[in-house]
Amino acid sequence: MVSSSNVSTPSPSFSEYSFPSHRLRALEDGSKTPLVLVACGSFSPITHMHLRMFEMAVDHVKQGMSEFEVVGGYMSPVSDRYNKAGLASAAHRVRMCELACDETSDWLMVDPWEAIQPEYQPTAVVLDHIAHEINHNLGGIPYPPPPPPPANRLTVPPTATSTPRKPARVMLLGGSDLLQTMSQPGVWSQSDLNHILTTHGLFIIERSGSDISDALAPLKEWSDAMGKNWMENIHVVRQLIANDISSTRIRQFLRQGMSVQYLLPNVVIEYIRERGLYREVEGFRESRASSMPPLRREAVDRAVRERRVVVEVDGAEGNGDKDGEEETRGRKT
Q: Region (Disordered) spans which residues (predicted)?
């Protein structure tokens, strides 16, 4: 078990950044396309549901997407520039994610690149960054070469070559709230949606008892108008066991001195306790306005001040990264 005791919390910096690849797996089946899953969000704090989302996506791939093989998974915490209510510093959120992955998984990793950026980064840029690191800088994912021909066949003696590699497909992973924000006009840019849903792809963990058809309809309409087929790259994962753990609720519990045992990895609970995170009582409610990127948020804030609109609390009652999924809303414009 990983312990958070005496674990320093260095501030992320460009000079010390290196892309984490130590847990990327080689392809077992060289005929398949290597698949890397990426979840973007606040992770303030990371919960068991954030981790569970990856496992559900892997099962979905194994059971119904035989052309792919999952070789890695990344969490990408948003930077401090996001300015959301209740957001711990990027250094704390990155470290909590690292501790959680180290304690609970043998294949999940945390990429701090987005967290150390001085400006807000759209998710499309984050996905491109990870794809570039894996496919360009690392050269792709290694895979086993085909078996040698039978000994009785005349063949040209093989030459020494490096391990063969394949480019990985990088896909975004999120909950049903993320899909709903994508279907809201003006929240995500059309160019980013097209890039994500054409070049990369999307896994959505469906909330138990919910119907996402209303959220899919606008996306299909927009993709049809562009002559695209986004639907083939949206993969809906059924949540067979309901899990409504919310980072927003976790923060509320912590501020009220309530137990969060069994809701978060133990090492994360210990880290939060030792550093006194999420204890302060905030003087404002966490709202949709605070979940938007800086420029759009400023416009909404002006409208709120002028009493032209009333922004109600969302509650982040999606599934998966309730916090992370709600906070991806508007990060893409």
A: 312-333
Mean pLDDT, all residues of the chain = 82
SS3 call for 192: helix
Above 50 in pLDDT, residue 24? yes
How far is 179 from 197, CA to CA, in rounded Å?
A: 11
Taking 50 as the threshold, does the pLDDT of residue 320 lie above it? no
Q: What pLDDT was estimated at residue 9?
A: 55
Scanning 118-258, the segments in alpha helix (DSSP H) are: 123-132, 176-182, 190-195, 213-225, 247-255
Contact 87, 97 (CB under 8 A): no
Instruction: List the chain domain ranges.
Output: 33-145+164-280
Q: Determine the Cα–Cα distance for residues 64 and 257; give it in Å rounded to an integer.
A: 43
The crossing angle, in degrees rounded to 10, of helices 90-104 and 266-275 is: 150
CATH of region 33-145+164-280? 3.40.50.620
